[in-house]
Amino acid sequence: MARDRTQWATEVGSSRGGSRVAHLTRRAMSESTGQSVAIAVVGSGYVGLVAAACFAEIGHRVVGVDNDEARVRKLQDGKVPIHEEYLPELLTRARANGLTFTSDLRAATQSAQVVFIAVGTPQSLTGSADLSYVDAVASEIARSIDDYKIIVEKSTVPVYTNEWIRRVMERNGVSRDLFDVASNPEFLREGTAVSDFLHPDRIVVGAETVRAAELLRKIYQPLTSGEYYGLVNAVPGVRSEGEPPPLLLTSTKAAEVIKHASNALLATKISFINVVANICEVAGVDVEEVARGIGLDSRIGPKFLRAGIGYGGSCFPKDVAAFRYAAEQMGIDFCLLKEVEKINEEQKRRFFQKVRSALWTFRGKKLGVLGLAFKGGTDDVRESPAVDLVQQLLKEGCVISAYDPAAEERAKEVIPESASMRYVKDPYAAAQSADALLILNDWQEFAELDLDRLQRTLRYPIVIDGRNLYDPAVMRERAFTYLSVGRPDFPRASKATASARSN
Predict the structure, then answer these.
(1) Residues 283-327 pLDDT 10s
(2) Could you tell me which residues are beta bridge partners of residue 181?
(3) Shortest CA distance to 185 belongs to which of 195, 167, 197, 194?
(4) Angle, helices 161-171/252-283, rounded to nearest 10 degrees
(5) Which of 6, 376, 417, 419 could join 442 via S-S bond, C-beta 3.0 to 4.6 A?
């Protein structure tokens, strides 16, 4: 039976020697079976740092590489620069088991058998993926190779990127027999990235040679064999010794397409349910009931059918745009993805108008905001719908008190603290004397508010919920004016009525 987060943390912290036993077990697992592989992971962001920690977790010899000297020093000092569940504990025991960080890509490449490229591929002005970081890293790797290496795309890249990396290697004089290029896309959700890596739905490996395929199989063997799940203090999750994850071996180009197509389809599901929510709102239907009915169909499933204020983050917006652009370059009009993007932008506008309809005017209104990251469980504010909405409200003259359990520091880089923008330390400080409270992401903490305390704290008991965290009937019983997404709006019940209903 899988353990939950609390049980795992208790077991890890139960004794000073416990984690050391785990280190020795992992090392013994790899060395006794000859499975330990020397790995360099280039990039220490949300993908690279998680990959480095997890490869070390399953017994490999790993060095993380980043050209940001300050970030490398933080990692060497034991600091964790991103918010990710399980990551601090994994990095602690991985360092004790040999995980290191450096800015010396040449040395890291020469000591590695496999080099994973996990650098950023931001969206360019044309909508395409900006591959300049991948190009720069590939060029440096090429100048460093002195024996056979596998260069693996871990970053999300468009189809044919592997061929460009191969050309970069050859143009720098690397003999064709000294390298292979492979693709091993990540399918990690921010906030649960460690669990997603160690308990994946599938592992996709795109390789063109048997040599490359077999070495990548070897890297993931502790997972695909189920061996990892029997270890002391293995990170809990859905996989087990009896049900390990499958490994799908494909061509390199197929692996590249799989990643972009997967993210584009998930974004499509989000935009689809948001349009359905808008229909439900007009028809007086609860989209949560509709989504449950749709999701029970095994051909569809319930995931990514949560209506809200639109998708964001570092993946979906850029990956949808990049996939559409790649299709256009092949002469294919992927008009569906244009609509997905259009709907996503429209959803943010609709929510903004919902706030306006509740408040009438904005100038001088004091608003409490819960949530700044693009979703709960992470500190990532890139392309966050919450940040977009806050910026619009500030332009309209609102005064904002905002709280996010993890994203405050990153949000301050985008929206500095000012007379009209205040960052606070808990939900009730955000709600203090506010004309309304906006819920903009789905941290569990926001779904467990003391409603009686909230009622006393707000100036007016108005809650505008962009994540549908509360039951509208319950909020009406508690005398709130409650607006959500894709559900009938409930005006405030009188306290007398609410009291009568509760008796």
Answers:
(1) 999 999 999 999 999 999 999 999 999 999 989 999 999 999 999
(2) 151
(3) 197
(4) 150
(5) 376
Provide the 10 A C-beta neighbour count for residue 292: 12
What's the pLDDT at 20? 44
The amino acid that residue 419 corresponds to is: A
Beta bridge partner(s), residue 465: 439
Distances (CA, A) of 62 to 113, 178, 232: 10, 21, 20
In angstroms, the CA 183 to CA 169 distance is: 16
Beta carbons of 334 and 320 less than 8 angstroms apart: no
- Distance (Å, whole) CA 269 – CA 160: 26
Separation CA 443–CA 82 (nearest Å)? 16
Tokens of 430: 């955000």
CA distance 11 to 407: 28
SS3 324: helix
Closest alpha carbon to 63 in 138, 114, 134: 114
Q: Could you give the CA distance from residue 441 to residue 368 in angstroms, rounded to a whole number? A: 13
pLDDT for the residue 491? 61
> Residue 404 phi/psi, 5° resolution?
-140, 130
Catalytic residues: 315
If we measure between CA atoms, which residue out of 259, 255, 227, 261 comes closest to residue 241? 227
Show Cβ contacts of residue 442 under 8 Å, excluding neighbours closer than 6 positions: 308, 371, 375, 376, 467, 469
Beta bridge partners of 203: 247
| Residue 50 zone, left/alpha/beta (φ > 0; ψ -120 to 50; rest) | alpha
Token pair for 444: 């569990």
Residue 391: both structure tokens together: 């910026």
Residue located via tokens 């004091």: 366
Distances (CA, A) of 222 to 12, 229, 352, 489: 20, 8, 48, 51
Buried b (16+ CB within 10 A) or exposed e, 319-332: bbbbbbbbbeeeee
Q: Which residues lie across from 400 on neighbouring strands?
A: 367, 421
148: its two tokens:
């056979």
pLDDT digits (tens, 9 = 90+) for 390-412: 999 999 999 999 999 999 999 99
Other CB atoms within 10 Å distance of the CB of residue 268: 19
Going by the DSSP 8-state scheme, the letter that residue 67 receives in this structure is: S
* 473 close to 499: Cβ distance less than 8 angstroms: no
Concatenating the DSSP letter of every residue in 207-238 gives: -SSHHHHHHHHHHHHHHHTSGGGGSTTPPPSS
Task: Look up residue 415 and give its DSSP letter.
Answer: S
- Classify residue 494 by its DSSP letter: P
